[in-house]
Write a structure and sequence with these properties.
Largest sheet: 6 strands, mixed
Distance between the termini: 46 Å
CATH class of the largest domain: Mainly Beta
Number of strands: 13
CATH topology of the largest domain: Protocatechuate 3,4-Dioxygenase, subunit A
Strand content: 15-25%
Helix content: 10-25%
Length: about 290
């Protein structure tokens, strides 16, 4: 096409695509470019703004490392990660939520009833529940990948004072589908705001805070994998999570209990001498 104009450039782009390209790729690319071109036309995007946008993307790429995922963070703070989660959540299962940029693969096995608190300060938190199918039946052998922040608000991948798998564990449940572990109460924290994504937050007058939460990835053969988080109902940032991760069914309550009520059969049984926090949260998986 030798006569490309601002009115026809979108159609020209589409005409350049091969006839035999995969249909889904054609659908996604067509929609992406239509919206991208419409955005530029609607805002009358300037050369300076275009250069600033390119520099922003290059800045994200420059700061990317094995432990720092700036593009994931960008997707999170724009709400795209949560939107994709919600588009593909099963209505009969536990809601999905954002993975976030701090998951570390290969966590060590954590037995049912195991402890992740170790020598960290703060009251003990006992988290337990049952992994079920949509009929309410336990799912034997389901695997729960758990991670969270330390009391200082940092994930292990952010903190040189923690080992790589601090506050990470991989638990395989038994025939009853029950999981249980002890840890510390997670704290609210800020997403990294020292990079390009922090510039977006500042430009929009937004804060970088997330409510405290526990991360779960739950998998089982024959079921859809679930990436989710659970949030306490008393967190001050529950209604203004900067990555839009909160869902109504993911909000739970911590209950303070006396040490005398700490149950048997756990790694810390007989060792808890002060009041502890307890939360019960069941997880429902949908079949594939």
């Amino acid at each position: 096409m030798r006569n490309v104009t601002k009115e026809n450039i979108t159609d020209v782009f589409i005409s350049y695509m091969a006839d035999d390209m995969p249909p889904r790729t054609r659908e996604v690319m067509t929609s992406l470019v239509r919206h991208l071109h419409d955005f530029a036309r609607e805002t009358n995007l300037t050369h300076e703004e275009w250069r600033e946008g390119i520099a922003f993307l290059e800045g994200c790429a420059a700061i990317e490392t094995e432990d720092r995922h700036e593009f994931v963070l960008l997707s999170d703070v724009l709400g795209l990660s949560s939107l994709v989660d919600m588009l593909h959540s099963s209505p009969n299962a536990t809601s999905s939520s954002v993975l976030g940029p701090f998951h570390v693969s290969g966590a060590p096995p954590l037995p049912v009833g195991g402890d992740m608190k170790r020598d960290f300060g703060g009251p003990v938190l006992l988290a337990e529940g049952t992994i079920r199918d949509t009929d309410g039946k336990p799912i034997p052998g389901a695997v729960l990948d758990i991670w969270q922040t330390a009391p200082n608000g940092l994930y292990a991948s952010q903190d040189d004072d923690q080992d790589m798998f601090s506050f990470h564990g991989l638990m395989t449940v038994g025939d009853d589908g029950r999981y249980a572990f002890t840890t510390v109460k997670p704290v609210e924290y800020t997403v990294p705001s020292d990079g390009p994504v922090g510039g977006i937050l500042n430009a929009c007058g937004r804060h970088p805070w997330r409510p405290s939460h526990l991360h779960y990835i739950v998998t089982a053969p024959g079921y859809r994998s679930l990436v989710t988080e659970i949030f306490p109902d008393d967190d001050p940032y529950l209604d203004q999570d900067t990555v839009f991760g909160v869902r109504e069914d993911l909000v739970m309550s911590y209950k303070e209990k006396p040490a005398s009520e700490f149950p048997d059969g756990l790694a810390l049984s007989g060792k808890v001498t002060e009041p502890f926090l307890a939360v019960q949260f069941d997880v429902t998986l949908a079949r594939e």
